[in-house]
Amino acid sequence: MWRTQTHDTLEKGWFIMTESRPPLPPFTLQTAIEKVQAAEDAWNTRDPERVAQAYTADSQWRNRDVHIVGRDQIVAFLTRKWQRELDYVLRKSLWSFHDNRIAVRFQYECHDASGQWYRSYGNEQWEFTASGLMSRREACINDVAIDESERRYFGPRPKSEYGDDIPLW
């Protein structure tokens, strides 16, 4: 479901490649939940190139104090992120949706090179094009140091838990 689909479109005698990333807006409750799960699944691959394909070529991000524009910057940012955030595991939960926008809550866990574990709590607001690619992402994130014994997430979410909410604390 999270694969990029390409379509050849004939426009004024030229073939134009367009990308599509279903589900497409306007979102329903079911398609918003699917979009959120697809994003979680992609990010849990920790593959910057794969993740970047879900965004428009000129997508704009605000991630903490960093402004990122375009897929090349997304790939560079995610490469650096996952080089320092080791054993990264993410959970996302739908908060709200309307038309072509989705808001999510998320938590992820990772450790640094010294072995210190963290749980990061955050919120994101997403805006999508008609083709289902994300054109805007705004993320607010806080990090909490945790003991390894406090970890909750030990790998990608099993399908039996798709759609489950995440705890507040």
Description:
The protein has helices at residues 29-43, 48-52, 71-84, and strands spanning 5-11, 14-20, 55-63, 66-69, 86-98, 101-111, 117-128, 134-146. A hairpin with a 5-residue loop joins strand 7 (117-128) and strand 8 (134-146). The strands form two sheets. It has a six-stranded mixed sheet with strand order 4-3-8-7-6-5. Strands 1-2 form a two-stranded antiparallel sheet. It is globular and about 45 Å long. It has one domain (22-161): Roll (Nuclear Transport Factor 2, Chain: A), CATH 3.10.450.50. It is 20% helix and 45% strand. It is α+β, with helices and mostly antiparallel strands and 169 residues long.
Write the layout of secondary structure elements.
Elements: E1 5-11, E2 14-20, H1 29-43, H2 48-52, E3 55-63, E4 66-69, H3 71-84, E5 86-98, E6 101-111, E7 117-128, E8 134-146
Parallel strand pairs: 3-8
Antiparallel strand pairs: 1-2, 3-4, 5-6, 6-7, 7-8
Order of helices and strands: EEHHEEHEEEE
Task: Please give the alpha-carbon distance between the first and last residues.
Answer: 31 Å
Helix content: 10-25%
Q: Supply the number of structural domains.
A: 1
Keywords:
disordered N terminus, six-stranded mixed beta sheet, Nuclear Transport Factor 2, Chain: A, two-stranded antiparallel ribbon, 3 helices, alpha+beta, 8 strands, 169 residues, globular
